[in-house]
Amino acid sequence: MPAAPAGKSPVPIQNRRPNPNLKKGTLIYNPVAGRRPARRVHEIREAAAVLRQAGLDIELAPTERAEMAHELAQAAVANGADVVFACGGDGTINEVINGLAPGTVPLGILPGGTANILAHELRLPLNPVRAARDFVRWSPRRIALGRALWTEPPAPGESASKGCARYYVSVAGVGYDAHVVYKLSAWLKKNFGVTGYVLEALRQYVLYSFPRFSCRLDGLERQDTFAVIHRTRLYAGWLHMAPSADLFAPHFAVCSFPSRNRIRYLLYALAVLTRQHLRLSDVSLDHCEKAVCTAIDSSETIRFELDGEIGGALPATFEIVPDALTLLAP
């Protein structure tokens, strides 16, 4: 906070809440997210203290297992929380969103993961304490979310398939990158962060067969081996893959890569790194509100990921859900 002019007292931080109706909050956090889990509890307590200075009654809610952030978000809403904060990686944020949407309780992001796609997109400080200090400058924005719909095969001992649906806020990746996420070990992710993804991507570059799938985009059909169905401009936190994507507009931007040739994939990678991929003749960026993806060869298992976490396998439908979430943003 800038210094107050001489003879004047600084404006109390309590009086600078973006909405005076935000009084009771829950801070859901993943204690082992990112590459510095030993510092996580200290940072969370400090961030909570900053939010309390802003006039919020904050309850801390750590996750202990997968999907728990989803349950904690639902419980926070049921218990009357006025605002929910998520501190962790994109996977933790995705779980919290799925506990809140569709709904009106606002979500605040305190970055604390590996890629931090949404935090980069919103240009938030990547330290959760500094982000908490910025809370007083955030405003509520209603946004659309992406939603994936697919069917899981029957579990052992069951006879019926299960229909699945999951929201996402940043990106859905189909094909190559989802296979990388599927094969990435927890040890590699924890100890090497983004570098771990790169190492696994290099390994799968040699091993993956790059099967093709059909992607129908509001009537337009493309055949791809890798596609990213964007809500945000950024991919993996720092790659500008979809410059025309808009988190605050109700549509997808779909970046498509069709080749099965490994040499061509090296060119794709270099072009993405240098932001030149849309100059390639076979790479496209399309806008739509619905994408239906189906494997060309039904015997092939082609996976998809949502916000960096493995989802399911094709066939799958990705649709825009307008006005699904209130997001606190600068």
Would you spell out the secondary-structure blueprint of this structure?
Layout: E1 24-29, H1 37-53, E2 57-62, H2 68-78, E3 83-88, H3 90-100, E4 107-111, H4 117-122, H5 128-134, E5 139-152, E6 162-168, E7 171-175, H6 176-183, H7 186-192, H8 194-207, E8 213-217, E9 220-224, E10 226-230, E11 234-235, E12 239-240, E13 252-257, H9 262-273, E14 284-288, E15 290-295, E16 303-306, E17 309-313, E18 316-329
Parallel strand pairs: 1-2, 1-3, 3-4
Antiparallel strand pairs: 5-6, 5-18, 7-10, 7-16, 8-9, 8-15, 10-13, 11-12, 13-14, 15-18, 16-17
Helix pairs in contact: 1-5, 2-3, 6-8, 7-8
Helix fraction, binned, reads 25-40%
Taken in chain order, the helices and strands follow as EHEHEHEHHEEEHHHEEEEEEHEEEEE
CATH class assignment of the largest domain:
Mainly Beta
What is the CA-CA span between the terminal residues?
A: 16 Å
**Biggest sheet: strand arrangement:** 6-5-18-15-8-9
- CATH topology annotation of the largest domain: Tumour Suppressor Smad4
How many individual helices?
9
Any idea what the radius of gyration is?
21 Å
Biggest sheet character? 6 strands, antiparallel
